[in-house]
Amino acid sequence: MITLYFKISPFVVRIYLSMILGFSVATISAQSLPDVFIGFSGEKVKSIEDWYTKRQPEIVRFFEKEVYGQRPVTNDFSFAYKIIEAETIVLKGKAYRKQVRMFISNNHHDTLTVDLLIYYPVKSGKMNIPVFTLLNYGNHTLTEDTDIRLSISKLYTIEKERGSFKRRFPIETIIDSGCGVITSCYEDFIPDNDIQFRRTSSSFYAIPPDSTGAISIWAWAYSCMVDFALQQSFIDPKKIAVIGQSRTGKAALWAAATDDRIGYACINESGNSGAKLNFHYDSLAETIEQINTGFPYWFNKSYKGYNQMDIQRNLPFDQHWLIASVAPRRVYVAVAKEDYWGDPEGQFVALKEAEKLYNFLGLKTHLPSQMPMSGEAITSGYCGFHIREGKHDLLTEDWKQYLKFIKQ
Ligand code: GTR
Fold it and tell me: pTM for this structure?
């Protein structure tokens, strides 16, 4: 795939070029990029205190109001847990595994059931273990192990799906590096389709129509796993990570920006409305209009108002603001070279822009000025990044870098 980069060229020219020539054309117009340091009133961030007391809350409120909608409020629900499988030694004696059913009840006593699957290393002596929280497509899809319960919430859960996403869950590698995982199916929290989403959001979450999208509910799902993690004596509370791929990567980023118990945000190929800079135009990449059309229920109604502004390059915000809002906690963005829809370079550029804020806060980062080659990874400092060969996916190679990142 050839990609041509123009520094600043008229939008129409870029579209025509990509159509006529049949290859990707990418541009970024630095002049018009909304400044993370300048608030909506025009006031500039002059001190660290300005950032934390004014600008960061303003950004989070903006994304809440205009993009994702408000997350459910944990205090509005009650939580109960039932052990489905007590601590069991697995993986040739290397790991403990537990399965716990979490019951979330609203104040009308309706209950939602979520199955949590937990692994942690035996070697660590059950103390100070860094832990990843991960949303998946069904716990049973992560391994071929028939002891793992079939997902309860998914419409068409079938035995045949068992292990179908095991490539995304290199549990032995995770355990060997001394880390633990708490994972659950994202659709246990709310279904990933328009009709059922609407049904559950109004009946269970009591969310007014169109005011909150699924990404906010999944972000809250990460927080529910963090709540559970903090009740486990084996974890290191300073090393709680969220990890998400693509749609759950978007949710993981929103979770990290809104929940300060999350120390590490591992954002894998989150693309549009995740860690991708909209101002980095790439003719092959997803636009706000496309995502709003394909997945209207992921976002709130206001977000639809930004379709045209994105096309005309005059959005009043961009996603580097959201990445920056994770500070002072750490953020890692990973992309795959052939994930054209997700715009790999657009994600590097967004992180690079967010890095300016980290540096302003005095938090050390080591990102290079240009996007690194595949095979190189920046796993130290507050902002991590790698690009790997291949397609849209979460693979062992990605996990290996996140495992280094969480160790610092
Ligand atoms: C796509 C969507 C992407 C990404 C992806 C996924 O179809 O357009 O933004 O979220 O789904 O989650 O795999």
Answer: 0.94
Confirm whether 233 is domain-assigned. yes
CATH number at residue 121: 3.40.50.1820
Q: Which of 137, 289, 291 to mutate to test the pocket of ligand 1 (most atoms within 8 A of CB)?
A: 291
Q: What is the 3-state secondary structure (H, E, C) of 21-73?
A: HCCEEEEECHHHCCCCCECCCCCECCCHHHHHHHHHHHHHHHHHHHHHCCCCC
The pairing of beta strand 330-336 with beta strand 383-388? parallel
Residues whose beta carbon lies within 6 Å of some atom of ligand 1: 246-247, 271-272, 286, 291, 294
d(CA 153, CA 352): 39
Question: According to the model, what pLDDT value does residue 155 have?
Answer: 60
Q: Is 246 a catalytic residue?
A: yes
Q: CA-to-CA distance for 197 and 186, rounded, in angstroms?
A: 12
Residue 18 in any domain: the answer is no
Give pLDDT, residue 25: 67
Site to probe by mutation for ligand 1, drawn from 168, 286, 289 as the one with most ligand atoms within 8 Å of Cβ, is: 286
pLDDT in the model for residue 156? 61
Residues in the chain, pLDDT under 70: 1-25, 28-31, 154-156
CA distance 246 to 244: 7
Whether 39 maps to a domain, the answer reads no
Residue 166's domain comprises 67-406
Residue labelled with tokens 């080659």: 373
Residue 50 is assigned to a structural domain of this protein: no
Known catalytic residue: 392? yes
